[in-house]
Amino acid sequence: MSVVFQNTSGWVLDACSLIDQGHSRCIRWREDRKSHFKCCFKRQCFQILKSHFSVKSGSAADGGNTDMLHKTDVICKPPKKRKRKHSDLNQGEIDSQAYHEKIRSVILEGTKSLVDAVRSHGYLNSVTDPVGEPLPTQECRLAALCEMAKELPLVADGDQEDPVQFLGAEDSCTAHLDLFSRITENSADWALVATLMGENYVIPPHAAFLLSDFTRIQPLVHYGRKYELIVMDPPWENKSLKRSRRYSSLPSSQLKRLPIPLLASPGCLVVIWVTNRPSHLRFVRDELYPHWGVEVLAEWFWVKVTKAGQFVFPLDSQHKKPYEVLVLGRYRCCEKDSPSSSETTEMPVEDQRVIVSVPSALHSHKPSLSEVLKPYVGAEAECLQLFARSLQPGWTSWGNEVLKFQHTSYFTVTPTDDPTDVAKGETAGSGTDKPTDTPAFPSAGKPSPPPCHFPPAAD
Length: 459
Known about the structure:
Number of strands: 17
CATH superfamily: Vaccinia Virus protein VP39
Structural class: alpha/beta
Distance between the termini: 40 Å
CATH topology: Rossmann fold
Order of helices and strands: EEHEEHHHEEEEEHEHHEHEEEHEEEH
Radius of gyration: 23 Å
Oligomer: single chain
CATH class: Alpha Beta
Shape: globular
Largest sheet: 12 strands, mixed
Low-confidence stretches: 54-67, 69-79, 339-344, 421-439, 443-459
């Protein structure tokens, strides 16, 4: 289970375990022969053992929460610059500080309650560094390919015979697939390894995706599904992102173009990841949600901790906070036209809940919220993830890097003789198995290439 613990403050998640649940039974077809695998997300991506505390700020920045800190976890780094006086802060920084003071006790007390509880069960107690392995590195060219796809003519409404194409046929050739203007779906009960655009990706069971940007989001609407849960992680504009150039950002006003009213069912739960800039939070609450007809219900907080249960950044840091905000709302437009109002069956969404987990070391790799949100939407709910960079079993996902973290380079692969071996063996993600890093899927220049060959992705 990815929910390690739950109380009235919130939840403790094992994000890596949840990824593994969707990939424990994996199949690849090659030359009419089926091979079975167990795929586990690489553990080094979640080996966050040390906090980013400096010598001078460490004692003050812990906010009195000394029980959650271990001296062995403190990185001794000199401060890079002099702390500015309050009068030197701009209005945005003053607003951020005020918002932080408002929620600080919720973060501190909720996190302490959850961490103390799971430590008694042996979780978040790790203070030793295992044999270090480098993080997987995969040059993601998906966004560039989406830009190139803009040169292709759009299929007019009604001209496309079927907006959906299916994986899982015994023929592993996928050269015919159009990933940019059609929904691609794995309808099987197991994960599939598919060669797409010359790269190997693991597609979870019953997952559907569209690789595109705003200019080609129409196939998602034509897919014909209405969703009870929509989660999005927009690429918010900020200075550090512009400096890093990791991916392109999006002006807040552009989010209004998302066709939420065409995708949401009455009473749909809408959840947005928001940065710690109050201007973004105000925009979501006061402009974006009203524009879509979404009623604001609650703010939750994702708190990032090390494997020893310590905040990854000082709680009162002026630079980076150890938490991110989630704004939750319900789609209310057209609900009056529905035969039966969903208000009578909706589970109330509590305000100011805390989600604690060890974050991924991979940039912008958020934990899945599927198990946390399931009670609020129902186990059989149709779920949609926007601006996705990974896939989830049973979900529909959209984004210009929607397959990024599904690349096989992020997984450790264990061949199995029979798919039921996983069910009879250890639970995926338990850490008791010993997977191998031997490449199970040949890459370019190695023997036994797959039957379909693709040109390398263009720069």
